[in-house]
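name: query_chain
kind: protein
chains: 1
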Amino acid sequence: MDVFNKCTVNLGPLGVYADRTEGYFMFPKLEGEIGNRMIFKGKERLIWSLNNYLGLANHPDVRKADADGAAKYGMAYPMGARMMSGQTVFHEQLERELAAFVGREASFLLNYGYQGMVSIIDNMVDRKDVIVYDSEAHACIIDGMRLHIGKRFVYPHNNIESLEKQLQRATKMTGETGGGILVITEGVYGMSGDLGDLNAIVALKEKYNFRLLVDDAHGFGTMGLTGAGTDEHFDVQKDVDLYFGTFAKSMAGIGGFIAGPKQVIKYLMYNMRSQIFAKSLPMPMVIGALKRLDLIRTQPDLRQNLWTIVNALQKGLTDAGLNIGNTASPVTPVMLYGGVEEATQITFDLRENYNIFCSIVTYPVVPKGVILLRLIPTAVHTLEDVSYTIKAFKEVKDKLEKKEYPNIMADISAL
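structure:
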């Protein structure tokens, strides 16, 4: 059989919708300056789906740093992987500053967050070790564990009683294999917005011997007194052994980092295949990341502006009778109830009749019958944006409950 046959017979769980949804629901094109309002299908929309928490994407100091870095070094420098010929003083400076900011001994830059997490897990465990992880772990964690040839045990999301049971199983198993235990959780869960129960997890260290890896992609820059992350928010930085952050959210860039004990970071530097055999992060991105980090450290008003919008949005939605779950972060889910058809119609209505663009999630990412509209507030949104959106979402909820949506959909292919 031809290996290409699957490409026409089975496009996968998302690909089966390609003909109907591509360009509108999937792979939509947002155009214009990055901000709270952008152009979609020729019309200006209010955008709630950009991971630009602190508004740094178009911050003038960031744009200048990016441009200056590109003008001075170009996108090619440095050439080669860091281990061979791609090391620079700026890469080292960024690693030192990141480590200091998140309260660790050392850090190591990663070209991409997703790729980095996969490689971190691959390097930290072997066949003797056991992974224990939260059931709602991000896809990058799941893919990293797929490379693990040892055992892994899952516990229901934030269920600490179950986590302890899995730790008991893991402890017994590693007693026989001579391996160790790695617990993996997220700081902020990107769909629900709730937090990993870090206090309860680290408390289990008094009874069990394990190391803790926290993926804080959505928490870095947004959570904690200084924005250093969800572990700072819980005041457990000293108990989180490995801290992972990405530049793709609050930093509005590309790349990421892993931070922890100096010897562990040294080990990763010399063993992470995804970095050893990949070209070094281009200089403009490093120069730009240094400026972004400087702004996060020195301009707390960016984070304060974000939380002003977050608090107004989440309170307003709740007061309007909308269900936002247990979010304790800027991630703001709005949960409605219906099937894929209703979800499609709601999205169409929001985009075409209210000029609101947000992400929509249905089964199998969320349980059957749930429609999750995910809003990402940023520091560049306004309170007027918030008020308008709350009113629109209340009207959409009322339409859904009155079963008005079967007649609202138009032919998307004509848009």
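note: Residues 78-281 form a domain with the Aspartate Aminotransferase; domain 2 fold (CATH 3.40.640.10).
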